[in-house]
Structures are given as C-alpha cells and as structure tokens.
Write a structure and sequence with these properties.
By secondary structure, the protein is mainly β. The protein contains no helices and 8 strands. The protein has a single domain, classed as Jelly Rolls (Sandwich). The strands form 2 sheets. Strands 1-2-8-3-6 form a 5-stranded antiparallel sheet, with no helix packed on it. A 3-stranded antiparallel sheet has the order 5-4-7, with no helix packed on it.
C-alpha cells in the first residue's frame, strides 16, 4: 500500500511530477510544488483533459482567456484539452500536493 503524502522530497529546487498510473487512455500523477510557478512565457496546452485536485497547500491557476482562480486543499477543477493555463502561484512555506488525472 502507498500513501500520497509519503516520500515528499526534502529538496524541492524544482517542481516534482510523479506518474502513479499510466494506462492506455489515462495518466494519474502526483505533483509537488513549493513556491513553484510555470515559466513566465508560454502556456500548458495539453492534448488530453486534466482533472486535478489540491490535496494540501494552495495555488493560483491562470488561464489565457479567463480570470485566474485560487485553489485550496480540497478544491478540484476539470481543464479541457487545449485550454491554455499555467500555475501563477503556489504556497512557499508548505508543499502544495496535487493529484492530476489526464484522460
């Protein structure tokens, strides 16, 4: 058995992306951020839909054509394929732990 809160790296110089499940049409990953943001230029423009939930911490997601939204622990969102978005802010004093389902 595994626990989503186990094995959090002590050194988080870069955001951590860990694939938990890889199947034909779905990928589930744990993302760990601590003060990390997306690069200033450019947007995520993914081929698959992405459902994500913040399990711990908080974050602000920016969208190319919509207002930014703040997510706190327990908040989830479904992002349609090719909806351009980026991480604008994450907590810097604690880890923000996300669970993302790409389908």
């Amino acid at each position: 058995m595994n626990n989503i809160f186990d094995a959090i790296p002590k050194n988080l110089e870069a955001e951590v992306f860990e694939h938990l499940v890889d199947a034909d049409n779905v990928t589930i990953e744990r993302i760990i951020s601590k003060g990390h943001t997306s690069p200033k230029p450019g947007w995520y423009d993914q081929d698959k839909n992405e459902w994500l939930i913040v399990l711990q911490g908080a974050a602000i997601l920016a969208f190319e054509e919509e207002p930014s939204i703040k997510l706190k622990a327990g908040d989830f969102i479904n992002i349609a394929a090719h909806k351009k978005h980026k991480v604008e802010w994450t907590e810097s004093d604690i880890e923000t732990i996300w669970l993302a389902v790409h389908y």
